[in-house]
Amino acid sequence: MKHITFYLDFISPFAWLAFDALPDVLQGHSYQVTYKPVLLGAILRHHGQLGPAEIPAKREWTYRHVLWLGQKQGLEMQMPAAHPFNPLPLLRLGIAAHAQGLPNRFVCESLFRHVWQGGLDVLDPRRLEALQAALPAVLDPNGAEVKTLLRAHTDDAIARGVFGTPGFEVDGKMFWGLDALPMLRDYLDGNPWFDGPDWAAAAQRPSGLKSA
Q: Residue 205 gets which letter from DSSP?
């Protein structure tokens, strides 16, 4: 059985698309998935990156693209009333559902649906209150332990080379993005390419650009 760590932030439409697609992509394989919520904004800042929603032209394209991808995938998906938004309340609800901050698929799906179905205000207090009441909790979502776990998950993701969400780690190999799901499947299928020189060589390739 393979173990896959799925790094996700509920603010990411690509994470929702990948979450929905993953069971079909991995059909026929024996695997276990650990869902690890991380703060995407902190990961982007660490790497000196802007998020897609911080670049006006890319923001517009991203919203069009993900809605098109959703309808092609047969996934109900609407943009929330405002995006981007502060994802901390959702991340903390997810982490609070498990003693180690690792929510199960039901919890993650509930949080994704809260964002990406209905076109509503993600941070509406009444909606958040109803969502919290519907989810199991073993930790205080606003407590220090949950905040510490979120920081630890995010730091772990950065240490393992995560630079965006969704990210998937298996056997120490990192696969990034919705469009990496076929590559992940190919690895699990045993393609010998992954044991060849090209995977490792990518990290050794010198850059032809010099810093000013």
A: P
